[in-house]
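Postdoc handover notes: sequence design on the structure in folder B. Input tokens:
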């Protein structure tokens, strides 16, 4: 299904250069990451992943490197779109949070595959929570609550997949409800609370908090079944739709290519998730299963946040649509996860 998602993502990025809403070098960068990702999948298909990822020191190194990068970004990173989320590496900008997604999936995959029979012990729950909490706090301080929520989904999803008893799960839910109440009043900034409230009152603040959502709805509503054509989307090309290659790429896609093509792309993505789950079901070891499940959890949550922000089901918090949105860091890590899963399918 990548054979559909990747060309579509490149096509949308290319169409945004028609009226110079983005520069052409961004399309070339996206093409570079796609080619690099395909090469990684080929390399992992001929290399047994177990010889690499069964090394716990490598997983610990990736996790520690991610923490170091997050600290550097927090103190020295440039402010881009009101957040400190990027490391500047020559001509490239890299988001350390993407490395943390990969390292947490591997770390928790190894951690819970060896402790799934004792996952109910508070020691294991608290230890795993600490692994999640340290990077999540650094990411929330950027501030990037969307990416912090992705890390939470990885941790909590692994707990549930490991067979956390209902009593422990109920206690955890009550704790997080309490933390959510505290976070609402003491952690979230005013604009973040406004975005959440805006989900329930989309007709209010149409020129501020809900501006992007309303423009996305106009783009989708005016597209019809087959769209306005390549480079002809008015909301997209004239700059009314914010972040058309990232946060609202689905609206860009539907405006120019129609509702039918948008549904086809979503179906292709869901089929990709189904294939990953099938590989998990056929894998012999718990570590392999957890890597597949962790990847599906990340892709599902990012899909929900990205598409949800387009149609008003979730706040606009800047999370990419996997393999469709523009973004070298996210695309590279998504490809690495897929390359590992492809290797699992071939060598397990």
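Designed sequence:
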């Amino acid at each position: 299904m990548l054979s559909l998602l990747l060309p579509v993502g490149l096509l949308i990025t290319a169409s945004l250069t028609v009226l110079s809403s983005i520069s052409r070098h961004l399309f070339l960068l996206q093409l570079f990451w796609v080619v690099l990702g395909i090469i990684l999948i080929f390399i992992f298909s001929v290399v047994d992943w177990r010889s690499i990822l069964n090394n716990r020191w490598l997983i610990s190194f990736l996790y520690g490197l991610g923490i170091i990068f997050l600290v550097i970004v927090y103190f020295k990173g440039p402010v881009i779109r009101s957040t400190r989320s990027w490391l500047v590496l020559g001509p490239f900008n890299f988001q350390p949070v993407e490395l943390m997604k990969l390292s947490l999936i591997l770390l928790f995959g190894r951690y819970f595959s060896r402790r799934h029979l004792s996952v109910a012990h508070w020691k294991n729950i608290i230890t795993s929570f600490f692994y999640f909490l340290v990077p999540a706090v650094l990411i929330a301080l950027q501030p990037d609550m969307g990416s912090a929520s992705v890390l939470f989904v990885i941790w909590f999803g692994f707990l549930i997949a490991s067979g956390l008893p209902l009593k422990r799960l109920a206690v955890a839910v009550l704790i997080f409800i309490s933390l959510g109440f505290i976070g609402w009043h003491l952690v979230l900034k005013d604009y973040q609370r406004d975005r959440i409230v805006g989900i329930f009152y989309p007709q209010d603040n149409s020129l501020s908090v809900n501006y992007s959502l309303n423009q996305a709805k106009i783009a989708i509503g005016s597209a019809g079944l087959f769209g306005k054509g390549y480079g002809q989307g008015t909301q997209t090309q004239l700059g009314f739709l914010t972040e058309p290659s990232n946060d609202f790429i689905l609206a860009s896609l539907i405006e120019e290519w129609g509702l039918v093509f948008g549904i086809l792309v979503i179906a292709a993505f869901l089929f990709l998730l189904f294939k990953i789950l099938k590989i998990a079901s056929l894998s012999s070891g718990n570590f392999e299963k957890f890597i597949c499940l962790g990847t599906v959890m990340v892709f599902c949550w990012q899909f929900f946040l990205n598409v949800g922000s387009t149609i008003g089901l979730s706040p606009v918090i800047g999370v990419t649509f996997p393999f469709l949105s523009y973004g070298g860091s996210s695309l590279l890590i998504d490809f690495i996860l897929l390359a590992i899963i492809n290797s699992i399918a071939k060598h397990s």
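Context for whoever picks this up: The chain has a mean pLDDT of 83. Don't rerun without checking with the PI first.
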